[in-house]
Design goal:
Blueprint: H1 27-44, H2 52-62, H3 66-81, E1 84-97, E2 101-115, E3 118-134, E4 137-145, H4 159-179, E5 181-182, H5 186-195, H6 201-219, E6 222-225, E7 230-237, E8 240-252, E9 259-272, E10 275-283
Antiparallel strand pairs: 1-2, 2-3, 3-4, 5-6, 6-8, 7-8, 8-9, 9-10
Length: 288
């Protein structure tokens, strides 16, 4: 008798399945882990020699597992220099979220100041924070700098998840079309950009194409992109998805040694009749 009550009634809609990846689907949980990860990164990677206990307190409060050792190893040299380091999480996005774990992409800026001699410098970095939920709060369990991240499997379960997953798949292909450069096929390079772009980016490409091609041809530049670009959505609506990406590239010019660069990218994807297209992208500059 009980089992008979579980059968679907003909004509009733089948309830949507809950996606395995809850990033941006469960907004409260997404915001919770974003806030926790940004707070952790800023606290554990900031250090003031006049108040060393503040960083130690942050580490005890926000870290668990391997992250404790990882942070300690990175801060060892900083303590010896006597520099004051201030870290600001500029951007963050959740790549993957379950009730008990998450992967969060964080783009941060750091300012280092010394008084003897007076010296100041600033720089940017990208981290992949693996967080886990313990005792009702999110703790950073693993922190990887300049990360790669294999594509998160598509997770059907409603319009937000569908938009997020399909847009990120298109963004991965589209961003590579912009970054991968072969000086022997510059016309093809521009054509590939045009194929993955929508307005206003489309007009920007056309307006600057000739100058870009001339400059790259003169330099003979080749750019390759490492596999598994780290990518995550910041927001997702049915027709617009914004996100972050971290890409490792190798730039080669004739007569010079290859140079490895890590790019911090913000982007916007818009749904067009023929699929998702890039409508905006830019490198995130370092501030400070």
């Amino acid at each position: 008798m009980v089992s008979g009550c579980t059968r679907a009634v003909p004509g009733e809609p089948v309830p949507p399945s809950v996606p395995a990846n809850l990033a941006l689907v469960d907004l409260a949980a997404t915001n919770d882990v974003l806030t926790a990860s940004k707070t952790a990164v800023e606290g554990v990677f900031s250090f003031d020699p006049a108040n060393p206990g503040a960083q130690a307190d942050a580490a005890a409060k926000h870290l668990t597992g391997a992250a404790r050792t990882q942070v300690e190893e990175r801060l060892g040299e900083v303590r010896q220099t006597g520099a004051k380091v201030t870290t600001v999480a500029r951007e963050a996005a959740v790549a993957e979220l379950t009730p008990g774990s998450a992967k969060v992409l964080v783009l941060l800026d750091q300012t280092s100041t010394r008084t003897d001699p007076v010296q100041s410098s600033s720089g940017g970095a990208a981290l992949l924070v693996t967080a886990q939920r313990e005792g009702g709060k999110w703790l950073a369990n693993d922190i990887v700098a300049s990360p790669t991240l294999a594509p998160v499997p598509a997770s059907p379960g409603g319009p937000v998840a569908e938009a997020r997953d399909s847009a990120l798949a298109a963004a991965r292909t589209g961003l590579e079309a912009f970054m991968r450069v072969d000086s022997n096929d510059l016309d093809g390079w521009i054509d590939r950009q045009l194929a993955v772009a929508a307005e206003p980016l489309l007009s920007q490409i056309r307006a600057g194409a000739q100058n870009t091609v001339d400059a790259v041809r003169t330099q003979g530049t080749t750019v390759t992109v490492a596999p598994d670009m780290a990518i995550a959505a910041k927001s997702a609506a049915p027709d617009l998805v914004t996100g972050l990406a971290v890409a490792k590239t190798t730039v080669t010019n004739p007569g010079t040694q290859p140079t490895e660069r890590v790019l911090r990218i913000t982007f916007e994807m818009t749904r067009q009749p023929d699929g998702w297209k890039l409508r905006a992208l830019s490198n995130l500059p370092v501030t400070g």
